[in-house]
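Incident log, structure service

09:12 report received: a user says their structure output differs between two submissions of the same chain.
09:20 pulled the input from the user's history:
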Amino acid sequence: MEAILDYYLEDGHLESIKNYTADSVERDRIIYEVIRVIDRVPLFYEDHIKRLESSFRLMDKNFSYKYDKIKDYLISLIEGNNIDFGNIKLTFDIKTDTMKVFSIKHSYPSDDLYKSGVNTILYHGERKILMLK
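09:34 re-ran on a clean worker, output below:
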C-alpha cells in the first residue's frame, strides 16, 4: 500500500487509512504531484498546483479545483496525521474525477551526508512521452 499514517482524504473527506484503495495502474488515467512538508508547511505549494494544471491541459481535461481548497485539504491531512516532516501525494483519477491526498514514505539525506557526500553512478535513461489521441 502506498498511503501511510492514519488518515487520507478522498474528494476532501478525511478517511481512515483502512478504507484506502490504490489508484488505477493505467498510466493515462492518473495525474499526480508530490509535495514535501517541513515544519507542517507544504513547500512550493503554488508551483505544484500550477504543474497539476498544466498536466490537466496536456490531458485535455478541465482543472476544476480551487488552489485554496486544495491547500485546505493539505492542511487537513497535515493536522489529521500530525505531520511535521514528510511527503504528501495528490492523485487525480481523470476517468472517475476522484482526488486523493495522502502521506507517502520519504527519505532525505542527513546533515552528515550533505557534508560528506554520497557515492553515485551515471545512468543513461530516456523517459517515454505518452501522447494521447
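09:41 both user submissions now match this output. Likely a transient worker issue. Closing.
09:42 reviewer note: The chain is about 25% helix and 30% strand. Residues 45 and 66 are 13 Å apart (CA to CA).
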